Amino acid sequence: MSEKELRERTSSGNKKLDSMMDGGPLRGSVTLVIGAPGTGKTCVGLEFIARGITELDEPGLIVTFEHFPKKLLRDANSLGLDLEEMERKGMLRILFTSPEIFFEQAQAPGGLLDTMVQELGAKRILIDSISHLERLASDPVRLREIAFTFINALLRHGLTAIVTQEDRDITGDMVAAQYGISYLVDTVIVLRYVELDSKVSRALLILKQRASAHDKAIREFNITGKGLSIGDPFTDREGVLSGAPRKKEIEAFMEVFGKKSKSAVKGEVD
Ligand SMILES: Nc1ncnc2c1ncn2[C@@H]1O[C@H](COP(=O)(O)OP(=O)(O)OP(=O)(O)O)[C@@H](O)[C@H]1O
Ligand SMILES: [Mg+2]
């Protein structure tokens, strides 16, 4: 991949996310999408692959260690994405395998990854999820090496990639250390559950994006029959990433004491 190509931006498959990402992910970059079960990691990945095909004509490869291809097709369908049709047209391949086999094959020149990328002319890849690589070793140093080798294998092919990772905490304070491979990837997108007024909502944040002026806001998002719908930042809340945000003091005050006290806050007399 040329220097010029590496400075080009491509699409995440979601226009709002692209605008948050300073125009979109850089070509040949790796984005980690991390979140608790059901937060929408696979949805983000499926949009990335499917819209890459339908809107940019970029063939895509999905490697899954956990979802049977049939389940993936069904999940994609519920987002309005017809993966079967894309497979039929030769623009998509879904590989359902074990982390052991894939890791071995990803390193080997002429291995499964090389072959599939070449045959398909793949430009994008989704790995769902990289958490399964943890099965390959128990030693943290060895695990780091494995993650490093793995990410490099993706970069070697010049693929723009999304890898998903499971966050064990459903809610709770964000601890940077738990984002195991964050330092290896270009972009980290965090998905969280947030309890708001006795209802569970979802929040999305771009934690980092190399070489980009990315959006820093924590935004509410929904998963719909048309894919991800990203909304406004949680401006009147604090502690959103803790999962149980508090209203900012002033907002809470206004809610309880209303308009009359607004002037009192300013020191005015009614
Ligand atoms: N068409 C739809 N309309 C509304 N919500 C949907 C729709 N399709 C999926 N969802 C929501 O998306 C959730 C699953 O999202 P997804 O599979 O991407 O999560 P995940 O983070 O990959 O989970 P896991 O860790 O279990 O793989 C469902 O639980 C459901 O709430
Ligand atoms: Mg998933």
TrEMBL record:
In its UniProt record, a GO molecular function of this protein is: ATP binding
Q: Which domain of life is it from?
A: Bacteria
**Pfam families per UniProt:** ATPase (PF06745)
Q: Where is the composition biased (Basic and acidic residues)?
A: 1-19
Which stretches make up the KaiC domain?
A: 8-244
Name of the protein:
KaiC domain-containing protein
Task: Note down the stretches annotated as region Disordered.
Answer: 1-23
Q: InterPro entries, alphabetically? A: Circadian_clock_KaiC-rel (IPR051347), KaiC-like_dom (IPR014774), KaiC_dom (IPR010624), P-loop_NTPase (IPR027417)
